[in-house]
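Memo to structure team: turn this sequence into structure tokens by end of day. - J.P.
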Amino acid sequence: MSRAAAVLALAVSLALAACGQSAEERFRTDHLRPLRHQMEQRSSELAVVLQGARMGNRRDTRAVRDAVQTVAGAADRLAALIPPSSVRGPFARYIAANAHLVRALRRFGGAMRSNNQSRLGVQRRATRATRPARCAAPKTRSRLR
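Reply from structure team:
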């Protein structure tokens, strides 16, 4: 009987502990932060791969493509989250910035694969054009903290 009472007391205390958090806090703590951390890790791994990659090299191109795919997967998992209504706008901007970044990374991977210098020039201009979106992601991310 005392064992059942202890389990019940534990369950009640856990339920009450969760009651103190707002929907926003639970979303950030339980869902957003772990996936955001994963996205940052994948982006860091991509940066390491890009540092050693050579244009036109098949192995390097494959490594870049695979690293971009892991970033895209993390971005997709983030996009699948359903935020509380209070952060829906900033969250949508964060997701849009991530999607824009993934598209630019995929275009870069395609240009790298073809070793097409003119395509890379277009990619450089596209990368400059993505600057507002890339800058928006950290700003929006800080609003979601």
